[in-house]
Amino acid sequence: MKQKNAIILLTVMLILLSIYRLSFTLTDRAIQQSATEYATDKRGIVNLDKKQKYLDSLWNKPVYNVLVAEYTYKEVKEMSLSLGLDLQGGMHVTLEVSPVEIIKALANNSRDAKFQQALTLAQKRQATSQASFVSLFGAAYAEVAPGEKLSKIFTNTTTRGKIDLKSTDTQILDIINQEMEDAFDRSFNIIRTRIDKFGVSNPTIQKLPGTNRILVELPGVDNPKRVRKLLSGVAKLEFWEVWETQDLIPYYQEFAAYLEREESKNQAKTGKKPSKGDGGLVAKSDSNAQKGKDPLVADEEDTSAIARLDTASKKTDTLRKDKPKADSLKKDTTDAAGNLAAQLMQPSYEGFVVRTRDTARVNELLSRSEVQRLFPSNLRFMWDVKGNEAAGNITLYAIKTGRGGKAPLSGEVVIEARNDFDENNRPSVSMQMNATGARGWRKLTAENVGKRIAIALDNYVYSAPRVNGEIPNGSSVITGNFTVNEAKDLANVLKAGKLPAPVRVVEEATVGPSLGKESIQQGLNSMLLGLGLVIVFMILYYRSSGVVANIALS
Question: How many Å separate Cα 83 from the centre of its chain?
């Protein structure tokens, strides 16, 4: 009897667990259906951009409750069944990192006729050869310029310290190969970051061995134009000044007062008070969350610092004013600004800390023209590229824009970046700029001693180190609580300005949902046929016992 009860209990638990897991898939499909209905006009035409904005607005908002647990749309997507391209449709894209552009950049865009001829010849041969493009280029140059060395083409400011007139062709080709691999890894990471912000459930992103191509599969995606734009853009590296949080408190207080007024209006209309911890304000139904904005990303604290390399001539320690305790800043700003603003955007020394679940709401608020007028005209908000998943919050950086909204320094001035170790044997990143960059970097660091400078790629902040002192020669070291891999990733990000690696779509296929429905139906038919054959076999072989077994099976 006890054994029977245990079997019944186990069966019930398995059924409940199955229902629980399937409920996420049903919720996901219901939201997708709502998005489609929302984006469908009177003529029955679906506006894909409008549909995507609707889904983006829900990405970090709670959409499903199980008892006391709340799940955002992102979590629902992650826990729903993954059908894959063959079942639910989507996009299959093959991307190629352009080796030609990288070689041109290393050659400082040389106009040498034989160099250009060798590139053209290598491109033609690549179509019918399995060899790497660098090998084909080396052979092509030796053919069109017999007896001439590659060093005369590749000895320039871009390759200073790596290639000189004494370098052999073999050494130069090895260096080009290494730079090509770094550019490929950088492009792969950038594409992966972009897709993570795209909001696709269970995407497939993989390098194709032996090639400079990347395979991307995006199940459920139905907007090819947006995907092409997202994947093929060239990454843009920029250096930005960062507002000090204390300087923004008066504007933050005006923002808090605005939230209080809006909440009073909402309460007057609905007669309801906001539940504790909900931030007090609901995003508009038409959701401008993604209009003209970047997708929202997460953050973790970055305590890195920029230091000089020329320590022999100047002191390494820099005097700076002691910061007040973080608790006092939190208390002062919360008391001054009110609970609604503090629940949504908690001031910190890095910027504003936002709960992950509130990012869509904050994004919608900051996109409102009346809110933008509350802050300085030269302020632009950017999210950090990483998230503190354990704490469940992200940091919003307050970026100080220059004339015309441009960054004071762009990534093209970076000529070298590498991961290293500092004097305390901690992972660090060394960065070297050209003469133009060194002048701009000297001015930028001199004006921001004790303040942060944000390093942003694709409008996401990868690091925001604090300046210890003026850096006169363009040589900098970024230190902090890095792991070796994080230092390597940051060095690779800094190289995005030095060697832009355009990515182009070489193959694209859109799989329609009809293929998925057909595959599902074929699977069901196969299952029913197999089950039927088992039932028939049981009856024919075991006769009455087989009938009993079939009844028990049903």
Answer: 24
Half-sphere exposure of 18 (CA within 13 A, CB side): 6
Question: What are the start-end ranges of the E strands in 175-324?
Answer: 204-207, 213-219, 237-242, 305-308
pLDDT digits (tens, 9 = 90+) for 317-374: 222 333 334 444 444 544 444 577 888 889 988 899 998 878 878 888 898 889 999 9
Which residues have C-beta within 8 Å of that of residue 484, sequence separation ≥ 6? Answer: 419, 427
The rounded Cα 508 to chain-centroid distance in angstroms is 22
CA–chain centroid gap for 244, Å, is 25
Identify residue 88 by its one-letter amino acid code. Q
Residues 148, 113: contact at Cβ < 8 Å? Answer: no
Strand, coil or helix: what is 145? Answer: coil
Report the largest interatomic distance among the alpha carbons of the chain, rounded to a whole angstrom: 98
pTM exceeding 0.70: no
Q: Which residues contact 305 (CB under 8 A, 6 or more apart)?
A: 465, 466, 467, 468, 478, 479, 480
Q: Would you say 454 and 399 are in contact if contact means Cβ atoms under 8 Å apart?
A: yes
3-class SS at 80? coil
| 79 vs 449: which has the higher pLDDT | 449
φ, ψ for residue 346, nearest 5 deg:
-85, 120
3-state SS, residue 397: strand
| Structure token pair of residue 227 | 């995907």
- By C-alpha distance, which of 29, 37, 35 is closest to 76? 29
For tokens 């019918």, the residue is 128
pLDDT digits (tens, 9 = 90+) for 8-35: 778 788 888 888 888 888 898 898 888 8
Cα separation values, 245 from 239, 242, 520, Å: 19, 9, 55
Instruction: List all residues 6 or more positions away from 329 whose beta carbon is below 8 Å from its beta carbon.
Output: 245, 246, 347, 348, 349
Which residue(s) pair with 394 in the sheet? 354
Q: Compute and round to an integer the Cα radius of gyration of the chain.
A: 29
How many angstroms separate the Cα of 169 from the Cα of each of 122, 129, 415?
16, 21, 22
Residue with tokens 């979590």: 75
The strand pairing partners of 354, in sequence order, are 394
Q: How far apart are CA 191 and CA 64, in angstroms?
A: 30
Task: Output the six-digit token pair for 88.
Answer: 């639910």
- Using alpha carbons, list the distances in angstroms from residue 95 to 208, 277, 366, 459, 462: 10, 44, 34, 22, 24
User: Which amino acid is residue 89, in one-letter code?
Assistant: G
Q: With the C-alpha atoms ordered 142, 148, 153, 157, is the resulting torsion angle positive or negative?
A: positive
What DSSP letter does each residue of 477-537 carry, written as one string? EEESS--HHHHHHHHHHHHHHHS---EEEEEEEEE-HHHHHHHHHHHHHHHHHHHHHHHHH
CA gap 546, 529 in Å, rounded: 18
Torsion of CA 261, 265, 270, 272, to 10 degrees: 20
